[in-house]
Write a sequence for this structure.
């Protein structure tokens, strides 16, 4: 699928010039607000834009309400300063609109920014790009999560959804430790759930094909596949190919985990980065299976923890996930 690009402030030739307006949705815990306001003010003035809107997230509203307020006010670009949860919440509202999303990486994972290959540690560049960059479109994934009480809630995610090890790990992560130690908190949680050998048992239907049953340790449905520490969990996943990529982990003992580590760390992370390295990649192994699709319907035998873009979303008994191609506009640097 070809990336769609257009100038950041393009308007039809026969219409009045568009008056650009920026809004910043920020998590006060994640940002240096004084520095951010100084940088935004300088770029806003240089671009000749009106006063930027400033909208703070809260525990009760991590970004959806603020995004709606910004769009209602006429914002043409929303700068998101927060973690992956804030980005996901704002993207949930912005996708399908003409408003662009600009990322100001501020969290622990910065998963979408990593997969877009944006600079993670240059706030000045990120802010400047929001006012002077170009637009590209990416896919988003919508997901209906059915709970044990038969209620269903709908969400949007931009990076990855998971059932199994990663969701259990997030459910066991100490939020206070995460604030202090970052990814070390996930290591502690991983050790806590690593002894859990219970498998997921589910029925699934991919791309409306006949239903099948499967037992697995973990299943992840990714819009993109890069994780921190240069881990390429889904090496062929792309943000703009109109597909999501699925990985299923089915390790049997120590050998199974060694197969997974070899594929993910060595083949995906090392061989894929060197010239002709893809020719050295092995075939699919029993412990690790890949698939692609546009729609997945899955029903579990027992409720299981589910995560979206690195945040726990409680327990699911069933889900339906589907792709919406090219439905989110992302503002990136001109030379990205």
């Amino acid at each position: 699928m070809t990336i769609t690009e257009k100038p950041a402030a393009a308007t039809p030739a026969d219409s009045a010039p568009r008056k650009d307006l920026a809004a910043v949705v920020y998590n006060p815990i994640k940002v240096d607000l004084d520095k951010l306001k100084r940088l935004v003010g300088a770029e806003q003035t240089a671009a000749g834009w009106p006063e930027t809107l400033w909208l703070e997230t809260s525990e009760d509203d991590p970004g959806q309400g603020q995004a709606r307020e910004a769009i209602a006010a006429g914002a043409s670009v929303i700068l998101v300063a927060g973690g992956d949860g804030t980005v996901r919440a704002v993207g949930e509202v912005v996708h399908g609109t003409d408003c662009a999303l600009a990322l100001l990486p501020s969290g622990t994972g910065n998963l979408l920014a990593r997969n877009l290959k944006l600079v993670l540690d240059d706030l000045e560049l990120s802010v400047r790009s929001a006012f002077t960059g170009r637009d590209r479109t990416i896919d988003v994934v919508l997901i209906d999560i059915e709970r044990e009480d038969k209620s269903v809630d709908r969400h949007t995610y931009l990076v990855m959804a998971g059932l199994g090890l990663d969701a259990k790990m997030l459910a066991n992560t100490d939020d206070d430790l995460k604030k202090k130690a970052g990814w070390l908190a996930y290591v502690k949680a991983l050790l806590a759930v690593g002894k859990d050998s219970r498998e997921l048992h589910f029925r699934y239907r991919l791309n409306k094909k006949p239903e099948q049953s499967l037992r697995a340790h973990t299943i992840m449905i990714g819009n993109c596949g890069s994780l921190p520490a240069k881990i390429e969990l889904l090496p062929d996943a792309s943000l703009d190919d109109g597909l999501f990529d699925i990985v299923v982990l089915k390790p049997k003992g120590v050998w199974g985990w060694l197969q997974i580590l070899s594929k993910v760390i060595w083949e995906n992370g090392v061989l894929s980065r060197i010239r002709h390295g893809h020719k050295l990649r092995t075939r699919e192994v029993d412990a690790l299976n890949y698939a692609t699709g546009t729609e997945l319907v899955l029903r579990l035998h027992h409720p299981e923890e589910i995560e979206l873009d690195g945040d726990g979303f409680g327990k699911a008994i069933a889900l339906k996930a589907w792709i919406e191609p090219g439905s989110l506009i992302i503002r990136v640097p001109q030379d990205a």
In short: Residues 7 and 134 are 5 Å apart (CA to CA).
